[in-house]
Amino acid sequence: MVAELQNSDTTRFRRNLARANPLAYIERFQAPATMPETKQRPIVIRDLEGFEDLQKAEAVEREVWTLADRDALPMTMAVATKAAGSIWIGAFDGNEMAGFAFGFLGIENGHLMLHSHMLAVREPYRDLDVGHKLKLAQRDRALAMRLQEMTWTFDPLQSKNAHLNFGKLGVISNSYKVDFYGPETSSMLHRNSTDRLWVTWPMTSRRVRDRLEGKDNRPELLDLLSRLLPLIQFNGDGKPVRTDLAAALSRQRIAIEIPSDILVVERKDPELAREWRLATRWAFTEALKAGFFVAEFCLMVRGKQGPGVYLLEKGLVEEYVPEMVRATSSAR
Fold first, then answer.
1. Which of 92, 103, 162, 298 has the fewest Cβ atoms within 10 Å of its own Cβ atom?
2. pLDDT tens digits, residue range 13-33?
3. Which phi and psi (to 5°) does residue 137 adopt?
């Protein structure tokens, strides 16, 4: 993920920062503690093989989300879904599980797809691209099942996840779920509502192949974003500001800014985090209702978890990604 801005891109980026000076007030991501030497071994991605592996996945789930019993996936359900053919994949550092992914078959708009319900990576492994590798392994197995699409949900205020999903994998979204898991759960990660973007990964599309091959559209994105007034943008205090909705909806593209690290905001200023939730909820729901879809996400600082901007396009997802298999009449 770490790379350097091209010279021309750097100039444009600095000019954009001058235009949107409030971004300078956003806290930068704090790097995790130095990893112990035992974590430097190659990570092995493989299918979970039995009850012991599922127990390790349960332990990772509880560690990552700090869940109470009522919110954790029951072991009996894990065993049953695996026996019925659901996809359980683990990332292993020796005998220790670094993370896992769990997906099951579903139907969306009449088409069979894989829904990735959970992907968890333990804290010491989060800068080792483990989540990306788990997604690629899910894709391999889904394609072997002759599936064309995968879906999942994520918190749109999480900039690092947004970068993985849109920037590296090439998902697309035209569905925003308000309080998808209810107003909150027992997890510390779910105290500021549980709003989610429902994303679709058209796994065999040119868009996705280009992302997986590392083809970079960042210069074009920065150029587009430099000419847009965001529907939600930062003010000088790091607060969200709503701009004119009617003007935004009259254009072909909409931008929505988010903080660099919403978890830091939630810990330091829960009221400010709530402001960001309500402001972005309003922006996404109004835009999607008016015929936009979420097309891209761009980090303002390349290769780091920095302030980010979503780019929404007006139109049908099939026009943007022709390989999308769903029928045009049921796209919205």
1. 92
2. 334 433 333 333 223 233 344
3. -65, -40
